[in-house]
Amino acid sequence: MIALTKNAQNNMPNIYFKHKMLTDFNPQDIDKYKEFMLDNGYKPASVNRELSCLKYLFNLAKRWKKFFGNNPVAEVEFLEEGEGITRILTNEEEVLLLKESPTYLKYIIITALNTGMRKMEILSLKWDNVDLEKNNITINQTNTKSKKTRIIPINDYLRNILLEQKLLCGGSEYVFPNDSGDSHITDIKRSFSTACKKAEITGFRFHDLRHTAGTRMIESGVNVVLVSKILGHSDINLTVKRYIHPEDSLRDAVEKLANLNTQ
Questions:
Q1: Is the pTM of this model over 0.85?
Q2: Which part of the chain has CATH 1.10.443.10?
Q3: Which CATH number applies to 91-243?
Q4: What is the pLDDT of residues 199-227, one digit of tens each?
């Protein structure tokens, strides 16, 4: 089992992979941990340090003959380190990005923008978890960062996209299957990067689609509590910190006072 360090600033749990054996790890687990770290306020440099530590632990276990598989961390790309500024997609950029994306990637992007789901939540999604009658997506607790089952509503636009995708997926149990259909797509980094380049969109990560969805909901007047539930944040303070700007809240407050005075 691997115990990870505690982030004092965010007061996060010091164990993420609790009760998980070395032989149970795969690259997808590491990717999910990367997203978990980003969602909980870690900077790319901090995430990379954690990944380096994990990579060393697996190599050490191999040296001690306690682990004989491939190092799962070695198959995961480290994050680009910089200022880590969140980039929000504009409506104009969205049109260009979707235009330059192949159909499968286009539908993945649309899913992200209309649900705020994390990349691996989308890629590993199964049709069993998509209810096109009740119009919702259920993400089981085993696939969420908070370890709680999350239900996300499906709007009419996404519902039509998913109906089209169901016809295209060839009967696979996965919403976004790989070429053979026996599993799901595992890597879209290259295709996403290519689409961004063709659309002349710079400094934009796939994870920023999630930030874009959250920002758009807040800007549309959706209550922050509901946004937090949809995004699956473990603490509403994470939502407030990331999407609510104090200066805007103060401005809205005094504008509401002005509206009362004119009634």
A1: no
A2: 91-243
A3: 1.10.443.10
A4: 999 999 999 999 999 989 988 888 889 99
